[in-house]
């Protein structure tokens, strides 16, 4: 989920009845050299326990020995109490032997790099304690993560791609195009870096530990689902990072044909970015709707949502575009029959000046109308807006600093 820009005075207001609205923001030339992750020495954090066991089985172990060693290794390398320090693991033959790992597995394991794949290029602290991080990968690509402290727990907003191909009109990341996918280890390393920072900040300010992850940073997670799922498996592994699956949320723009696979493979929560109450207006700001209509999206959710689970719809509110009382009625009708909540998000400054934040009165009226239909409705207040770290703003810094195409 991401969002828009402070409107210029006198910019024309968009109304529900108007023809499909804001002109698509022209995407910058793709930075695409390859949409695949670059090759480098294989990293330990690119593996969850299952893929590590598979690697060890290919290295000559039996299936059961490979699984046992993989479990010991992820505990050694990544295991720590939430909120506790996670020192760099000892990583040599003596350390593996001390874990009880046989010599047969040493060469395959020690070929993996246990270090971080990212470094902090810039820290931008917000007035509201949010911390936007610009992180540099080993090939120079820049991504952003946002650390959001809360009274009970701290949340990290994680990126899943360098840039994004989905071109939503209200999103800075969408202007970049897709440069490449992030590897699972690069997703996990956003968490490792943020945990260390949250720990340091928490000790200084008695802040809450990092316990919440949201895949709402740069990129469409379902366009890199394999790596995202692998990262989630490691992050929720009780031997490794120990995040509760219910505290991990993946947000999609509605890539309907991946929803079933997501629920089959992950126990994490799903958020779907809706942002309009009908196809015409949704398609005008979210090109994905041309491929997957709202009806197709609803059908995929109804078919795939496991028993007892519910989906979180995100609805970014744009002044006089999708915030009329009638729009709340349409939205209520759309979500009827699905186990869900709706998160209403007043838009943030973004790339399209025609998409403006609603007034407090219009926001309140919309929320009251939607709640009046019996829809569980939440309002997400913006965090980190002053440093470009709120929804829709990520990539502002990255855009100007990405390495030039080869
Ligand atoms: S899918 Fe997400 S990151 Fe990509 S353009 Fe749309 S809102 Fe931005």
TrEMBL record:
Keywords: 4Fe-4S, Cytoplasm, Disulfide bond, Iron, Iron-sulfur, Metal-binding, Methyltransferase, S-adenosyl-L-methionine, Transferase. It is found in: Cytoplasm. GO terms for cellular component: cytoplasm. Its cofactor is [4Fe-4S] cluster. Residues 150-386 form the Radical SAM core domain. The keyword S-adenosyl-L-methionine applies. Pfam families: Radical_SAM (PF04055). InterPro entries: Aldolase_TIM (IPR013785), Methyltransferase_A (IPR040072), rRNA_lsu_MTrfase_RlmN/Cfr (IPR004383), rSAM (IPR007197), rSAM_sf (IPR058240). CDD domains: Radical_SAM. Its main location: cytoplasm. Residues 1-27 are annotated as: Disordered. The keyword Cell membrane does not apply. One of its GO terms (molecular function) is metal ion binding. GO terms for biological process: rRNA base methylation; tRNA methylation. Belongs to the radical SAM superfamily. RlmN family. This is RNA methyltransferase.
